[in-house]
Amino acid sequence: MMINSIYTHKEIFLRELISNSSDAIDKIYYKALTDDTITFNKEDYYVKVSTNQQERTLTLTDTGIGMNKEELEQNLGTIAKSGSLAFKNNNEIKDGHDIIGQFGVGFYSAFMVADQVTVTTKPFASDEAYVWVSEGVDGYTIETGHKDEVGTEIVLKIKENTEDESYDEYLDQHRLQAIIKKYSDFIRYPIKMDITEQHPKEQPENADENTEPEFIDVTEEKTINSMVPIWRKNKSELTTEDYEQFYNEKHYGFDKPIKHVHISVDGAIRYNSILFIPQQIPFNYYSKEFEKGLELYSNGVLIMDKCADLLPDYFSFVKGMVDSEDLSLNISRELLQHDRQLTLIAKNIKKKIKSELQSLLKEDREKYNEFFESFGRQLKYGVYSEYGMHKEDLQDLIMFYSSTEKKMVTLAEYVERMPEEQKFIYYATGESNERIEKMPQTELVADKDYEILYFTEDIDEFSIQMLMNYKEKQFKSVSSSDLGLESEEEKKEAETETDENKELFAEIKNILSGKVSDVKVSKRLKTHPVCLAAAGDVSIEMEKVLQQMPDNQNVKADKILEINTQHEVFESLKDSFAGDKEKFALYANLLYSQALLIEGLPLQDPVAFSNDVCKVMV
Ligand code: ADP
Ligand code: MG
């Protein structure tokens, strides 16, 4: 059954149920705090865990907000139909990790250890109670029932032991106590259990010192968890594991976070915050469904699940929470946007994330690479978005693959290595590192031993255009018409060569009119016969990206055909120009098509191209 595959440790079902209870208490607590007609006694709110060995039942009772019939149906009844399940079936296992792990299937984890689950619940401000019973994903029933107190009681009928699995442990008080301590210690409401311990029987006054002491069972209700939320604890008391447990309990992700940050600020504004940088991209990260934001608490009470205003888009991958005493509980979503405290907190958090990423980059490059692999694209997008408003914040965090270092490098590292005479930061755009390596346009720059950054993502060139320069060095595409490499002498040479073949070049330009804006002698090509270069701001790669946009304005690069006059092919071109004009036109078209193919641009007429190749062969 699918539920069994979600978690490796069955014991976490208890964490899931307790966290639901805690959420439900949060909700009623919040109601009480914002509604004067309700009084809230903290002592009245708790979760109780109890067992019955004979019946093989484990019961969780909470004094939370409860559920009405519709809520029962919606919240617990729809797993079989839920989007997550459909998604799971369509995308069995992607990238080697189980996608379902990323969904909140919390409640259903109960079926990992139980054959039957009975939920009796009485919603706040209602006289009716409801009983929901289910034996798994196949269905459920709801009936009207009876319950005195508002809240929810969940009874699990624990499975019988099998050959390879013992379920008895979920009826054992010590084991349950240990599980609660491990996963739910930070829950802010008491988790109570009746704990039976053996106590020595009180001896009569006149008892002989040598008589064996007698023991009796004493059952006492005890609170198992420490109840101090992790963010209120002292950093020095906490281990990385504690933070990771919290990350899992909160369902921030099912991976192991790359880094956690614990912030406690006690100044003009006061707040505690725990932030995580996840390792894996949430499956829907680059889609519209993804919602960024941090959990927002006002003095320990959850007031918002995903407060988007706390995170800039370019750090939308960050998970975590903020708790501040200075925020009003009654604040509405709209007002929150203009809340001065919140704006300040958001600003601090942004700074903190930036500096944490910077130190990760400096101190643990391997981990930073891992992070960048997942979320680098978002940072580059951040450079580009909002007209480059955030480029200062982000330019030192982005990386590109380097032709000489054969790994990801930062712009600072590139500039550091630049020889004195090198004027520009060179980059090449293409689908993959392998494709770029074979690009004819890289020949001259590589020949000079200059480092080239490989731009393999759509966003790369756009963000670099927004950046314009880095440490006063301009960026230059190896495909741009002027590479800024030729000496005055070389420029002259190219000009005279163009002059010598002036008519030939004019004729090619004529044949390719409307396709290229100019035809030139290439100085960058060493071994290849032709390539395309772009003049102006729109590069060929950008043209490709823009053409794919739904509302594309048919923006095209201003293309220049460059011909390598040192290549044998140029001799044939010259011969045909002198003797056979038809052949010359054929060659000109072929060279142009070749240049398009090398660039990965579509041929306008592949059939004509194929016919042209045949003409050369026969
Ligand atoms: P999640 O907690 O991620 O929403 P769950 O499957 O754990 O997903 O729970 C589904 C929903 O059922 C919860 O969001 C909540 O509305 C409701 N629910 C579960 N347990 C309780 C409870 N003890 N009291 C009130 N509502 C509950
Ligand atoms: Mg849950």
Which key features would you list for this structure?
single chain; about 625 residues; alpha+beta; Heat Shock Protein 90; Ribosomal Protein S5, domain 2; Four Helix Bundle (Hemerythrin (Met), subunit A); eight-stranded mixed sheet; six-stranded mixed sheet; 20 helices; about 35% helix; binds adenosine-5'-diphosphate; binds magnesium ion
Structure characterization notes:
This protein is elongated. Residues 1-8 and 80-104 have low confidence and may be disordered. The strands form 5 sheets. It has an 8-stranded mixed sheet, covered by helices on one side. It has a 6-stranded mixed sheet with strand order 17-16-19-18-21-20, sandwiched between helices. It has 20 helices and 24 strands. α8 (340-363) crosses α9 and α18 (568-579) packs antiparallel against α19. Helix content is 36%, strand content 22%. It has 3 domains: 2-200 and 213-223, Histidine kinase-like ATPase, C-terminal domain (Heat Shock Protein 90, 2-Layer Sandwich), CATH 3.30.565; 230-363, 2-Layer Sandwich (Ribosomal Protein S5, domain 2), CATH 3.30.230; 488-535 and 557-618, Heat shock protein 90, C-terminal domain (Four Helix Bundle (Hemerythrin (Met), subunit A)). It has 618 residues and is α+β, with helices and mostly antiparallel strands. It binds adenosine-5'-diphosphate and magnesium ion.
Sum this structure up briefly.
The chain has 618 residues and is of the alpha+beta class.
